[in-house]
């Protein structure tokens, strides 16, 4: 059995490879791919097969996916380019004879108004049409979306957003990676759609309160109109297009778009998801 993980130099991909190793998969049965394979030298040193795979260069994908039986297709990061890129990857997977494609999608991808969802919905449709058995891992927000950016919140005493009292079922990247590994190594997941989120949803105000408690620095949540939040993001150096997407996402969060009550994530990983307090503690220590 050969397991291939794309985008393995990214945060989630690297954790997924590690999760497979932790589950006892022999390193030589794991293929880790990246646009820049040199970034995976540490995995190669452990015996993992390392190959080049660039979604925008179909010629790299045939050799990258050769021999793969189960493929973890981690969605590309280039908004606006994902559909053609993922189309290339799915075509290559079909030609390689892949028997299962696990794809990292977005929450409620086929029904949500989250602005990041249309490309994921289109990719799901492409995978369904390919005829290859699939698993859609509809990952909710990562805790790290918030905890990796706490320095400015601690400096200014405020977390900004436009999410209102919307509840967010976040989990750590490691939790989502563990779920991906469980799906790849387990049985009975063919053609399943999993809505993945943390067990304990929180509001932005609750996040701010937890940061205050653990850091000893007073941090408040400042809820802004979407246009003001977008302007604040741009002023902080976020590119215009991403600032617009982030603000629009918060509008949907306010409506409940990131509340995920399925319990799928904890069932797949066989344990409770990482609590908010633990995620914040890790961030504050670092």
From TrEMBL:
SUPFAM superfamilies: NAD(P)-binding Rossmann-fold domains. Residues 8-184 form the NAD(P)-binding domain. It holds the Pfam family NAD_binding_10. It comes from the Bacteria. This is NAD(P)-dependent oxidoreductase. It comes from Phytohabitans aurantiacus.
